[in-house]
Design a protein that fits this description.
Structural class: alpha/beta
Distance between the termini: 88 Å
Oligomer: single chain
Order of helices and strands: HHHEHEHEHEHHEHEHHEHHHHHHHH
Shape: globular
Helix content: 40-55%
Length: 410
């Protein structure tokens, strides 16, 4: 029989013993305060693996006195959820039922809607965890009924106490008295890329491969060329993608190429391709309108080449974007329009804009000088709303000058 993983043996049983996430579980942590006040809403935990999401759920369940059920969305079905619900009417569920659903992003919309029925009527309290951005992968109705909390990568300094506990457990189990150099301890903590579980596994491997004193040299033998929180099935490395975009937006080609290399060396070609296409329109946009087309060509080339050669066209794209003039005017215009739509505005579209009214009284611009004629296009209940403002770059200012000349003609 396989022995229990060391990471499980050192799993904390109280908030005081947790490493990292002080903003959530420290003395003034948000979740800790809620639990102390016996307030337990539905919650969504998101962040990289090995940062304490499962541990937190266990502690919360123990403190609440509720019956804890654990499901993993990669294997669970609707029938599994219904089996949990049956506990709510039994003696086991008299203090309430807490469902911890790991990797909720793997539940499809129908499965998440089924889950919604049970959290909405209070039969279960949900704690869902995901390594993905929940706002992209979790059903909006569940998010609106939950408190969302971000778990951050655990720092090297925060991981060290967990490694010392792990070493003490190993010595206790083996009857040995192995020690570890400070250099090796901090090397293992730093090499885990913020993942406590990974650091403990690395320590355990080093323990059984090393001598009486664990050294950095022994530990380094277990590390791959590149270590990072990369998950090709998802987007665990949002931090790196975000850093790439912020570097491009900030017109820093050196930082941008570094983060591209970090992402590609981690094996995520598709994540880089998607983000580059998004930023071409979001951050460069109208300042250099051909940028999206250039990036698209580079992305298609990268996909055909595959790694490692894909780095060639993507490097081309990143340097071009980082050094191109910038404008987010199109993105801001959309957000302003979307805000009015979400507020229920813009219902009264002019009749001459609608096919159902046969475009009666519609003025066809191409029939007029300079292909423009003054008429209202926005819904009448929006008043004189304005969404787009020309950017200060050369391209948009040229367009602004052109249309000011045309539209001021009477």
């Amino acid at each position: 029989m396989a022995s229990e993983p060391l990471a499980n043996k050192i799993r904390p049983e109280s908030f005081d013993d947790m490493v990292g996430q002080s903003h959530l579980f420290g003395a003034n942590g948000t979740i800790r305060k809620m639990c102390e006040r016996h307030y337990l809403p539905n919650m969504i935990f998101f962040g990289p693996p090995g940062t304490g999401k499962t541990t937190a759920a266990n502690i919360i369940a123990a403190q609440s006195g509720m019956t804890l059920h654990k499901l993993n969305a990669t294997t669970a079905s609707i029938d599994d959820i219904r089996a949990v619900i049956r506990d709510t009417g039994s003696l086991m569920g008299q203090n309430g039922v807490l469902l911890y659903l790991d990797e909720i992003q793997y539940f499809n919309k129908k499965q998440q809607q089924t889950l919604l029925e049970f959290i909405e009527d209070g039969r279960i309290t949900l704690i869902a965890s995901t390594t993905e951005n929940p706002y992209l992968y979790v059903y909006n109705a569940i998010i609106s009924r939950s408190a969302v909390f971000e778990f951050k990568s655990v720092t090297e300094e925060e991981i060290v106490p967990a490694l010392n506990r792990a070493l003490a457990i190993l010595n206790s189990e083996t009857g040995l008295e192995k020690t570890i150099t400070d250099e090796a301890l901090h090397y293992i903590a730093a090499s885990a890329a913020g993942d406590v579980r990974r650091s403990v596994n690395l320590l355990e491997n080093t323990y059984y491969a090393g001598g009486d004193e664990l050294t950095k040299e022994t530990a380094s033998g277990f590390l791959p060329k590149v270590v990072g929180n990369f998950d090709r099935a998802g987007t665990v490395h949002y931090d790196m993608l975000s850093a790439l975009q912020k570097s491009v937006r900030g017109s820093d080609p050196d930082a941008a190429i570094f983060y591209l290399a970090k992402i590609l060396e981690g094996g995520d070609l598709l994540g880089a391709c998607r983000r580059l296409q998004a930023m071409a329109s979001e951050d460069i946009g109208q300042a250099y309108p051909i940028a999206p087309a250039i990036v698209y060509a580079c992305v298609q080339s990268a996909k055909e080449l595959g790694l490692p050669e894909a780095s060639l066209p993507l490097s081309h794209a990143v340097i071009m974007l980082a050094t191109a003039p910038k404008s987010n005017s199109a993105h801001i215009a959309y957000e302003r329009a979307a805000a009015d739509i979400r507020a229920g505005k813009g219902q009264n579209v002019p009749d001459y804009m609608r096919p159902t009214h046969r475009y009666q009284d519609y003025k066809y611009p191409h029939d007029y000088p300079d292909h423009w004629v003054e008429q209202r296009y926005l819904p009448t209940d929006l008043g004189e709303a304005s969404y787009y403002e020309f950017g200060e770059n050369k391209t948009e200012q040229a367009a602004k000058a052109y249309w000011e000349k045309i539209k001021k003609k009477k």
